[in-house]
Amino acid sequence: MLILETLRFLMTTVGGLFVLVLLLRFYLQLARAPHKHPFTQFVLAVTNFAVLPLRRRVPAWHGYDSASLLLALLVQLLVVVVVLALNAMPYDFANPQTWFGLLLLALLELFRQSLNLLAGAVIVQAILSWVSPYNALSPVLEALTRPYLKPFRAANVGGVDLSPLILLLIIQVLQMLPLRMLEGLFLTQLQLAV
């Protein structure tokens, strides 16, 4: 039992971190973050071993890094499958309905990871704006968060920008209500497929 818990922990942690870095690669390209920035170069270096071979088979779609996004989905699907396979409840992995449910769970988790990534970027950007406003990481964080903070920029009270707080509240509500409800629905669907 303890070994299974350890395996689940390792799989979700290592797989989740790799998925985060792959999503970060996708979003950095999407946000047109500075390509020569050391942080961007680090993300590219960590993921190139997996993304570049896949890119030969999966072309960019409308200029978007579809290989990184597809790889993030595949890794997340692998994590979901392994974690559920290690559970005591048996799942019928030969049933196409089970795989459809697993794919939906992986997509949901990718969305959750994207929200976590955005929340993390907003928090780090807010902290850096107080302690080190001219930090070298600021242009990358600005590129990642600008489109999401822009609708709330009018929320300025006494010279204090409240847009990060509003965005973080929205992210939390999304994770508490619709994402948990969908996850419960998808898990129920998987149990019915057994």
UniProtKB/TrEMBL annotation:
Keywords: Membrane, Transmembrane, Transmembrane helix. InterPro entries: CCB3/YggT. Pfam families: CCB3_YggT (PF02325). The chain crosses the membrane at residues 7-27, 39-55, 67-87, 118-137, 157-177. It comes from the Bacteria. This is YggT family protein.
